[in-house]
Amino acid sequence: MQTFCNIECKTGFYLAKNEIRCVRKGDPLGYSWAQVQGQAVCQAISCGKPPILPHAQASKHPALYGVAIPYSCQLGYSIDSSPKGPKDFRLVCGSDGSFNVTKDLGCYKVKCGKCPTGEKYNNSKVAEKEDRFYSEKCHYGCNVGYTLDAQPIGKTDFSLTCLPTGEFSEPKTCDPVSCGAPQAIDNAKALTKGEVAFPGFAEYEVNEGFTIINDVKPGQNFHMQCQSNGKFSEIIPPKEWSKIAKDSCLVGRECEPAKPEIEPVPCGKSPEVKNSIYDDKDYFFGQSLVYECKDGYTVTGTIKGEKKPEVECGSKGKYLWNKENKMPECLPVECGEAPEKKNAQLVTRGVPSPVTAASKVLMYVCDAGYSTAVEDNPYKPLHRTDAITCQATGKFTEFTDCVNINDCSDSAFCGDDGECVDLDPPTGTPFDDYKCKCNAGFEQTIMKGAVDTKQCTNINDCPDPIKDACGGLNRADERRGTCVDGDQTYTCTPSAGYKVKKGKNETCIPKVCGKCRKLKMPTA
After folding, report:
1. Taking the model in full, what pTM does it have?
2. Rounded to whole angstroms, how far apart are CA atoms 72 and 89?
């Protein structure tokens, strides 16, 4: 018998665990009894994580029944929008598993009121008319002719921010525009020093090498006026310009005269410099032209020579290089004399001295019996030539050495009974440029064919003359035996009636029949 007990938890708690049960003890057939054992657990109901309320900070950990979670308004917020209003409140986890959140409970921006005006805000106008709240801005714009820093490119607007205290931040002031120091004008220098304020003038003088009146005349002056917008006006030319402006309009017609321009003295088209790359166009005083010598060329013809000479257009309308009235040259880089190569001959004709990067390719041919590939065909070599050139670095390209051709490249040479030995230096005749190192019992033999070769062949060890070998001829002019050649030796095959006699010089001798038998003669 195991019956669980019903457990009821208090308000705000739930039954998380129930192990209480009635258990039978003892012997069912004898004495037994019932006993309650185990435990039950009631846990507090969880409301989960506290709700996120705008602009309020609280714990992010889940809360249980009865727990109060404190909330604090962020800086610049209060419960009633007042700068000194309450900023803290609590939410309690209820027995239903939810927090006691009301509709209007929360944190609201602090109110600063209307955008301020008055003496501090002279020379400016505010855009907003409504009340401002925390972090909101009042936008002001300076009147025409005023900026925040009195500079021509200075800002003309600023803003105030509603602070957490319910006050506005301090304003900036709009000051009268200053045109500052005379602005830089290309090809002219300012004679006026210091700042120029509206409606003053800045005086300039045209630089040497430039003109504003179409005349190469020193001391040409003009003016620029500081305007209310903080910028200088266009160039106000000298009196001499009036005639130029008048002549630019057709007679009897009204038109706007051309604007005065400060023009540099022209030098004309860029001169040609051979073996270089350059921008072919008109250049003017103050401009420079770079001649980029082509790869393999320098101004001096040496590897350390200048490669990008720069030429400038002078104030007199002349091109100048190194401040002199002359033009640079791009000369080919020198590599020196044509080098000699071992076991090879230079076959290129008309080789200059010295060889330069502009020179033609130097062709070399290997001597007879030599090649750039050691395994080349000795009878019909395919790699006897190699070429080098003078590089832009002032050095020749790498040359592949001419080496002795391996005349033993054909495995058939000398056969299986010897070793082919390549001869160095070669004679240039392939047949004469190797020999056979034959094994013992073999000798070098010339084998005739479409291409004569050398082979290792077996040496005939039979005695010479062959007719005297193995006993020679008997009185009947018949051979006593036949000589059979072997490996550094020979053997004899005896003819009928003969046998082999072993020894240093094997031979064939007659067989011995023994003594003649005595025969009995018949009697009469």
Report:
1. 0.46
2. 7
